[in-house]
Design goal:
- This protein has two helices and 14 strands; from the N terminus they run βββαββαβββββββββ.
- The protein has 256 residues and is mostly beta strands.
- Among the domains are: 32 residues, no CATH class; 39 residues, no CATH class; 97 residues, no CATH class.
- Strands 6, 7, 8, 9, 10, 11, 12, 13 and 14 form a nine-stranded antiparallel sheet that branches.
- The termini are far apart.
């Protein structure tokens, strides 16, 4: 009769005692890491690192995607700036390598500074070339400086015409030489000499008698104009001792 076995499962006995510690293993080889290939892939792909070496001698190959493409601008009116970097400098100057925000911040500040400067300047329309404007806020054109000069000062080459001129003072009023001081309507910048073109001089006494005088001319110089506009001339002649009461003086001079 054959034996019959019935499986009733695994029978687990009690845990045995801990065994003795095993011997220390040998020191393993030192691991190394180096960079292998670096591949750039288009924007949007996933970055990846693969070890093409071994666990002990790792070689990492990198796959790096490109950055987000910049905005291509073909027309300036399509460029949008969400903000700019404010510049504190006065009349700032853009520099190479600055960002667009910094650049436009400087542009805005430059025009702001220019507007403030222009506000302090005189408008060209408020420069007048006349001597009649009386409104405030206007400036005189430089050409009027010449007009004012010519109106108040003698210049070289000007013609000086005197008709029945009166003298303000005279020295040596008797004898053979008289220095006559005649007040002029204009001045000169410093002393200027005059040359004579024509002259007529008659001294008048109280009794109505007249005496002819002659202008003294030395080396072409008939007299001098000095500031503030007095003509000094010397007249020779034979004059009586009695004080003269007036003079009839007509002359045409050229300012030298």
């Amino acid at each position: 009769m054959a034996d019959v076995y019935t499986r009733i499962g695994y029978i687990k006995g009690a845990t045995g005692a801990t065994g003795a510690q095993g011997a220390k293993g040998d020191t393993g080889d030192a691991a190394t890491i180096q960079v292998g290939s670096v591949t750039t892939v288009p924007y949007g792909q996933t970055a990846n690192v693969v070890n093409s070496g071994t666990e002990q001698a790792a070689i990492f190959d990198f796959t790096i995607p490109q950055g987000r493409p910049g905005q291509q601008v073909t027309e300036m009116d399509t460029l949008l700036l969400n903000s700019i970097t404010t510049s504190a400098a006065e009349f700032p100057v853009p520099a190479v390598g600055e960002t667009g925000k910094v650049l436009w911040g400087k542009v805005v500040k430059w025009f702001s500074d220019m507007a403030a400067l222009v506000a302090t300047k005189l408008n060209a329309a408020n420069v007048v070339n006349n001597l009649t404007t009386t409104a405030s806020g206007y400036a005189l054109d430089a050409r009027q400086g010449k007009a004012l000069h010519d109106e108040n000062f003698y210049s070289s080459g000007d013609t000086l015409v005197l008709n029945d001129a009166t003298y303000t003072a005279m020295s040596n009023a008797t004898g053979n030489l008289i220095t006559l001081f005649i007040s002029l309507p204009k001045q000169t910048n410093g002393t200027k000499s005059v040359s004579v073109n024509s002259v007529s001089i008659n001294w008048v006494r109280a009794n109505g008698q007249t005496y002819q005088g002659t202008l003294v001319v030395t080396d072409g110089v008939a007299g001098y104009i000095n500031t503030p506009g007095t003509l000094n001339i010397n007249i020779s002649g034979t004059f009586p001792a009695i004080q003269m009461t007036g003079v009839n003086f007509r002359a045409n001079f050229t300012v030298m």
